[in-house]
Design a protein that fits this description.
Length: 532
């Protein structure tokens, strides 16, 4: 890591980024002393981060959800109470606590309480099917599962030691977080000897989701994001992306540095999201790309009623921006879109600014501060700019290896993302697809992403996904699945691809679906398409 380490330095850059974001600001000597003691005792993870916000700005709004508003002092006191009650139920340092909650106060209550006990938080995907959920719980063996009431039946077949309800649709009941918060001791706890880890699951688009644990990332991870994502202190942020996954969780973590007000709704609805941004005067909007697609599919007369004048940053991550989605969003709501590329294992690899997306709508932009991205060929040699190969990333917050064993490939301190891509002449990264999705058709390499982007640009196509299938003439060909806004024939769509791409890239057949199968983070479940 010697050479890489030298590339990742830059204290002056960090100070500049934090000053621009408004994080570095004057405080009284008394506040600074309390702040220092808090961070020293609790660290820079959720326990210390939100406790420090309770010191710096106790009365500032920290969260708005369907139950109302909470301040940073409220969050600190509530999580203290819950931590005391969890300890009574046997939770100790190093235990695992699974959290299966949508975006609401219970997610934060549980996350902070678990961290204050030095336990590990395992975040479960709210779109899990029963078998997936059972496999993960059997592998991870959490002491307690905190889940929203709606997931009770899904958990009925799981072997779980204890359960608590994170959200209840109705009056508060025993064994709910709200009940424990009400009766719990709100005094500060003694700091644990170990800081808890966060375990975020991979998307599981090709099999059982894997656990990717991380220790506290510290301030460097935030500086990297903020170096190309112009968020500011005290903004109101509508986090529509699920917080159980890397992207939504990142903005919960940023809130403890930026003093953001997290504006949350339990479920995403396209028009409701626009209403929330306007009514709450949100400065930033955190999404996965399919959410932007669904907003732009609203009727024209509906879209025309929302100007989103307060919105300064729309931050998208989790999957590719298909076709001209970036341009469509910015043409309607202004040049505020940023596209963040990364993975659960490597965190953030590159960020496309509005300027990048105007110049190259499908690009993933450029690496942020303290991040190195290189492209390697099949022989682990770095390729020249413009040539495609496997994408590898180095930064200070790579994951530690899967909880069930195994790791990603590493070359010279850089970790594989699992994707194939290239750098263009302007230094922008272009992600061409998963390295395990490439097919060889007629002796030529073909990535589904290129064909998907081509079909997405047809005016009748709303959504598209492509997979490799056997072909008697070419060996392999792509099969495409589309969701349509207007009637169009299969031949017309094939001719569209033939006009824009090489003949061997034309899908063997194109199937129309009412919707594509997706997980809760918006990624298409291609394993299900293979079964159709």
């Amino acid at each position: 890591m010697g050479k890489i380490g030298s590339l990742l330095g830059g204290g002056a850059t960090s100070a500049k980024v934090l000053t621009t974001a408004g994080v570095l600001r004057p405080y009284s000597p008394l506040t600074l002393a309390r702040l220092g003691r808090t961070v020293l005792a609790w660290g820079t993870g959720p326990a210390g981060g939100f406790a420090s916000m309770a010191v710096r700005h106790p009365d500032a709004p920290a969260l708005v959800d369907e139950l109302g508003q909470l301040t940073f002092h409220d969050l600190h006191a509530r999580s203290n109470a819950l931590a005391h009650e969890l300890r009574k139920r046997g939770v100790v340092e190093g235990d695992g606590i699974a959290i299966m909650c949508r975006n609401h106060r219970g997610f934060l209550d549980a996350s902070l309480a678990v961290a204050k006990l030095g336990a590990d938080a395992l975040y479960l995907n709210t779109a899990f099917a029963g078998p997936q959920l059972n496999e993960v719980l059997a592998r991870e063996k959490p002491r307690i599962v905190v889940h929203d009431e709606e997931f009770g039946d899904l958990l009925s077949g799981a072997s779980v030691e204890q359960r608590l309800l994170g959200w209840v649709d109705g009056p508060t009941v025993a064994d709910s977080l709200e009940a424990l918060v009400t009766v719990g001791d709100r005094s500060d706890l003694p700091p644990p000897k170990r800081h808890g880890r966060v375990v975020i699951l991979t998307s599981g688009t090709t099999g059982t989701p894997k656990g990717a644990p991380r220790n506290e990332a510290g301030i460097d991870a935030a500086v990297a994001l903020l170096s190309r994502l112009p968020l500011k202190f005290g903004w109101r942020t509508h986090v529509a992306a699920p917080m159980f996954h890397t992207w939504g969780y990142a903005h919960m973590a940023l809130a403890m540095l930026l003093g953001s007000t997290l504006v949350l709704t339990r479920k995403f609805d396209p028009e409701q999201a626009l209403q929330v941004i306007e009514e709450q005067r949100c400065d930033s909007f955190v999404v996965i790309p399919v959410m932007l697609q669904r907003i732009l599919r609203l009727p024209e007369e509906t879209l025309d009623t929302y100007e989103l004048r307060s919105l300064k940053v729309t931050a998208a991550s989790g999957s590719a921006l298909a076709g001209d989605l970036a341009l469509e969003w910015m043409d309607r709501f202004g040049d505020n879109l940023h596209n963040i590329y990364g993975s659960t294992e490597v965190a953030y690899a590159s960020i496309a600014t509005p300027e990048d997306l105007r110049a190259a709508p499908g690009s993933a932009g450029k690496p942020p501060h303290a991040t190195v991205v290189k492209i390697y060929d099949e022989h682990d040699r770095e390729v020249a700019d413009g040539e495609a190969g496997r994408i590898f990333v180095a930064n200070g917050w790579l994951f530690e290896g899967y909880t069930g064993g195994g790791n990603k490939d590493v070359i010279d301190g850089l970790m594989a993302t699992g994707d194939v891509g290239r750098f263009d002449a302007d230094g922008r990264l272009h992600v061409e697809g998963r390295d395990d999705e490439m097919i060889v058709s007629g002796g030529e390499n073909v990535f589904p992403r290129e064909v998907e982007d081509c079909l997405a640009r047809h005016e009748a196509v709303v959504e598209v996904a492509a997979i490799g299938v056997d072909d008697s003439d070419y060996g392999k060909r792509l099969r495409a699945f589309v969701v349509l806004a207007d009637d169009v024939s299969e031949d017309e769509l094939k001719n569209w691809v033939k006009t824009n791409l090489a003949r061997f890239k034309v899908p063997r057949d194109i199937t129309v679906l009412d919707e594509l199968p997706r997980n809760a983070t918006g990624k298409v479940l291609k394993r299900e398409l293979h079964q159709l």
